[in-house]
Amino acid sequence: xxxxxxxxxxxxxxxxxxxxxxxxxxxxxxxxxxxxxxxxxxxxxxxxxxxxxxxxxxxxxxxxxxxxxxxxxxxxxxxxxxxxxxxxxxxxxxxxxxxxxxxxxxxxxxxxxxxxxxxxxxxxxxxxxxxxxxxxxxxxxxxxxxxxxxxxxxxxxxxxxxxxxxxxxxxxxxxxxxxxxxxxxxxxxxxxxxxxxxxxxxxxxxxxxxxxxxxxxxxxxxxxxxxxxxxxxxxxxxxxxxxxxxxxxxxxxxxxxxxxxxxxxxxxxxxxxxxxxxxxxxxxxxxxxxxxxxxxxxxxxxxxxxxxxxxxxxxxxxxxxxxxxxxxx
Length: 329
Description:
This is Xanthine dehydrogenase family protein subunit M. InterPro entries: CO_DH_flav_C, CO_DH_flav_C_dom_sf, Diverse_Substr_Oxidored, FAD-bd_PCMH, FAD-bd_PCMH-like_sf, FAD-bd_PCMH_sub1, FAD-bd_PCMH_sub2, Mopterin_DH_FAD-bd. By secondary structure, the chain is an alpha+beta fold. The chain has 3 domains: about 10-55, Uridine Diphospho-n-acetylenolpyruvylglucosamine Reductase, domain 2 (2-Layer Sandwich), CATH 3.30.43; about 60-120 and about 165-225, Uridine Diphospho-n-acetylenolpyruvylglucosamine Reductase, domain 3 (2-Layer Sandwich); about 230-325, CO dehydrogenase flavoprotein, C-terminal domain (Enolase-like, domain 1). It is built from 13 helices and 12 strands.
C-alpha cells in the first residue's frame, strides 16, 4: 500500500547528547532532518524503521559560520535555501550556492537540508521500488540487463550496481574539497569528501561512509578555493524538481591568464562524484581557448562504458567539461 506510512516511534532530541543516547538505545533507528528522502521511503514502505530520530531541532547542527582560514562551516541541518541565499556562501563558494539552487523545487529546498542532500540514497527506480537487487541485498542488478531502462545510470565503475549519486551539492562539495564531520560512538571524525562518498566496492548497501548510529554534524569547506573562479551546471529532463542526467562543478585559480590550479567533478555518471583528474592534469598551466577545449573534450569521458540507453551521457559530459573551461576564458 503506497503513500501510507507505517507506525514508528518518533524522538525529537533537543541536544546532540540526547540524540546519541537515543541512538545508543535503539540499534535500528533512522535519522531524519528535513525528511525529503526519508518520507518517500516510508510512504512506499520499502524502509520501515521502528524508531525515527528527528535531529532538525538541535541548534549545534544548524547554521553557517566563517572559519579562520577563510573557509566556511555549514551545519548538517542547514536548509538548502539558506545555503543558496547565504552571502558568505555566494561570495566565497558560488558553485555550492548554485548547486543548492538547482536542487528540486523551492518548497523542497525550504525544508530539505544540506546534510540530507549529500546523504540521500540513490534514485535508481528498481532499487527504490523494492526490487531485490544487489544494493538491497539480492543477487541481481535489474538496471543492467539487456531490456533494462538505464538512461539515468552510470558510465563508470559499472559492476554489480550501476546506480549513480543523486546529490547536486555533493558534486560541488567534492570539487571544493570539503570535509565532513561525523559523530561516531561519542567522538568526532573528519572525513574528506573523496572518502565520504563510497562505491559498491567498499559497501554496496550504502553510498556514504555514514554507518548506523552515525550523525553528520556539519561540513567544513576549507579556504583553499574561497573566491576562486567557480562553475556549476546541471542538465536534467526538467529544470525544476528533477535529478541530474549529468552535472559538473569546477573551482579554478588563474595566474597571468593561465590555469594555475583546478578541481573539476562530474556527477550522475558514477556511483560517487567523479573527479576529472585527466582534465585537471591537461589544463594546468594552459590558457583557455578553442584548442584547449578540443583536448578537454577528448579526455573528459575517457574510460566510459555506457549501458543500453545512456550513450548520450558521453557527449553531454564532454560538453559540460568544455563549458566549464570556457567560463575561464
